[in-house]
Specification:
Oligomer: single chain
Strand content: under 5%
Order of helices and strands: HHHHHHHHHHHHHHHEEHHHH
Largest sheet: 2 strands, antiparallel
Number of domains: 1
Radius of gyration: 23 Å
Keywords: Cell membrane, Ion transport, Membrane, Transmembrane, Transmembrane helix, Transport
Helix content: 55-70%
GO molecular function: monoatomic cation transmembrane transporter activity
InterPro entries: Cat_transpt
GO biological process, one term: metal ion transport
Membrane topology: Multi-pass membrane protein
Strand order of the largest sheet: 1-2
């Protein structure tokens, strides 16, 4: 029997292996096609489920066209772990509908991390030894030659983190007077929503319902913070928690930049909102600090809010625009251009200002390709936000500051809302849905696609430097 015949017979007898090999080959050959195709298919499935009458608490209460737009928007928002919604979740959707949304968040969170891992593996296989060593350093003894092993590690890490959060939330909901079943359900729902940076809530008023409960706020913050660090960072810390000196550059850079962004956000939000009577002006210092810390963590991609965004000052809006655009860590459920991208650009700017040829940090030198990739991600993100804002301004009657906030929240898959999603037309919902999908997939696929381009010319042009600045 020929080799090709043997391979065909093997695929017929072992379809699971054939599917795995097909996905593996597609990840290597066309990561962008794999990313876009898989996410669109998953979104379509959940949109169809949400369109069913069983998903609505009051079927027929809204026109069919409006319900379809709501279903598509919420499906995209859940699978892309954003949290934006044009309707009140607990009153519009039935128990079945909320279960579908919860499943969408879980599938979306798992899909994002596994997709990033598969794309990273595809890049490492294309580039060879250097990227393999970097990936192995981030995951210790993990064998990157096997897709299943990597994905299994991702799933176990996520489920373990969510289980810990749920166990910590459960007794608090019991203390608040919930019955056993409701306490268990709320614990599971909010552990999934927070760790995956989704920001969906099922209580009246959203996150404001827990504004006076520092225990629940702290756990929601913890889930969002850890989930936004990224799988490589979480795994590195879990494996090398007692040896910080052994942490790789990505982990150190992510933690340092995340801490800096969080500290700046906390400081300025305290300044901007402490004297604002519509938000924190009449509250005590301790309560104010907890709420401001909560609001400083959420723009990383969390989406929970203890205060009405519309009541916050314009200065806070602009600050949160920047924080949402930056987002969280790479290979995480957070959106944005990622903290490492910003860190690389700042370090490159400092090195250029000091006249240094190389960019150094933590005893390591950054490659020129890393700097170019960071510039590409920044420009791509800015273009998406600019075009999305122009489109939404043509559709919506809301002012620029509200539209810009909503577009950046959609692009960064954050979920904080200025109120545009709740009032915009069906065309606006579809537009924001596209922005969420592009924002979720754009930077991942762009980074993978550019990293896999390893071509070199056999000649170089003469060097000449134009006047810049």
């Amino acid at each position: 029997m020929s080799k090709n015949s043997t391979q065909r017979l093997d695929r017929f007898l072992r379809p699971g292996r054939w599917i795995r090999d097909f996905v593996d080959d597609l990840a290597v050959a066309s990561p962008a096609r794999l990313a876009i195709g898989s996410f669109v298919a998953v979104v379509a499935l959940f949109a169809i489920l949400l369109m069913l009458p069983a998903s609505m608490r009051d079927p027929g209460s809204v026109p069919q066209a409006e319900h379809i737009a709501n279903a598509v928007f919420v499906a995209v928002s859940s699978v892309c772990v954003t949290g934006l919604t044009p309707v009140v979740t607990e009153s519009y959707w039935s128990d079945f509908g909320i279960s579908v949304i919860t499943a969408g968040i879980q599938v979306g969170g798992l899909g994002i991390l596994t997709l990033a891992s598969v794309l990273g593996m595809a890049v490492s296989r294309r580039l060879g030894v250097r990227q393999r060593l970097i990936a192995q350093q981030a995951t210790s003894a993990l064998n990157l030659g096997q897709v299943g092993t990597l994905l299994k590690t991702v799933v176990i890490t996520i489920v373990t983190a969510e289980a810990i959060l749920a166990v910590l939330l459960f007794p608090r909901f019991l203390i608040r007077g919930e019955n056993l079943g409701d306490a268990l359900w709320y614990s599971v729902f909010y552990s999934i929503s927070s760790f995956n940076n989704a920001g969906f809530t099922i209580h009246p008023g959203g996150g404001a319902y827990f504004a006076s409960d520092p225990w629940i706020l702290s756990l929601l913050m913890l889930g969002v913070f850890v989930g936004a660090l990224g799988f490589p960072v979480v795994l590195m810390i879990a494996l090398q928690w007692n040896h910080p000196k052994r942490w790789d550059l990505h982990t150190k850079l992510t933690l340092t930049t995340t801490t800096a962004v969080l500290a700046v956000g906390l400081l300025f939000l305290l300044i901007f909102e402490s004297a604002n009577p519509a938000t924190l002006g009449d509250k005590g210092a301790g309560h104010t600090f907890v709420e401001v810390l909560f609001m400083a963590v959420m723009p990383r991609s969390g989406g929970f809010a203890t205060m009405d965004i519309a009541d916050m000052s314009q200065s806070s809006h602009l600050l949160m625009d920047l924080m949402m655009f930056i987002g969280g860590g790479s290979s995480s459920t957070a959106g944005g251009i990622k903290v490492t991208t910003v860190a690389v650009l700042i370090l490159a700017a400092i090195a250029e200002a000091r006249g240094l040829q190389d960019v150094h940090i933590f005893g390591r030198r950054l490659t020129s390709s890393t700097i170019k990739l960071s510039i590409s991600v920044l420009l791509t993100g800015a273009i998406i936000v600019f075009v999305g804002t122009l489109a939404m301004l043509q559709i919506s009657a809301d002012p620029l500051d509200k539209v810009l906030f909503e577009v950046i929240s959609a692009f960064g898959t954050v979920g904080l809302s200025s109120g545009v999603s709740a009032t915009v037309s069906e065309a606006g919902l579809y537009c924001l849905s596209v922005i969420m999908l592009i924002g979720r997939l754009g930077t991942i696929t762009l980074a993978a696609a550019l990293s896999m381009q390893d071509s070199a010319r056999l000649y170089r042009y003469p060097e000449e430097r134009p006047v810049v600045g």
